[in-house]
Amino acid sequence: TRVFETRRAGQPVKAYPALVDDGDTVSVRLFDSEAEQAEAMWKGTRRLILLGIPVNPAKFASEKLTNPQKLALSANPHGSVQALFDDCATAAADRLIADFGGPVWDEESFRKLFDRVRAEIVDTTVRAVGQVQQVLAAWQACERRLKGVRSPALLANLQDVRTQLDGLVRPGFVTEAGLRRMPDLMRYLVAADRRLQQMAANAQRDTTRMAKVHEMRDEYAWLLEQLPQGRPVPRQVLDIRWMIEELRVSYFAHALGTAYPVSDKRIVKAIDAAAP
Fold it and tell me: Which of 65, 88, 232, 233 shows a CA-CA span of 20 to 30 A to 31?
């Protein structure tokens, strides 16, 4: 059952049960809201599936790679190649659970979901590692170029790119962004690289556009502050974070194209629509 009626201090209250990811095990807990239940259930289902798979997909993926490939992947924000592979396997599980209609709420449905994910997860993880390898190469190119631009006048602009890169590629970024977003992530990094190439020649233009981006970032930060603390952030709110990345592409590397029409007006509209 997805909802229990319980009593608290004599008053009837609803409680929402879900699986909880405890790392090496999975437990069941009651939550106060459907949003918390949904988030916990997703992560709990993912953990239960990963714990049940006899082959460790992250380990298998690492055995498929050549030493030069592993070396290329060792420059990552996770601290180790194994942690990066685990991130790829978790993201692969997310992708498959979504594709196969999970999470599910009864044993028979779970068995079916588990079998379907198990059949695909090794291949999906290996493909994910391939995509992530390209993203990391773009990130490393950006990092090198960022270190190469030396101009005191551009300090704030360079710091802006530094903050952007740290937000895009950090421990757990594959699962956080999701496999579907890897091509977008690649585009954001290429756009940042192009911006760095042109920054010194167009310092004033870069600064003006950066101010616009910061305005949107501040609006988004305001929105996050309006949400109930400790509750999962709704998807329509998280999507605005990616709209701001698309805005950067439209400003700093227009030729790359954006995933959809984007402008500061559209972002403000989305923020207003999502504000509680």
Answer: 88
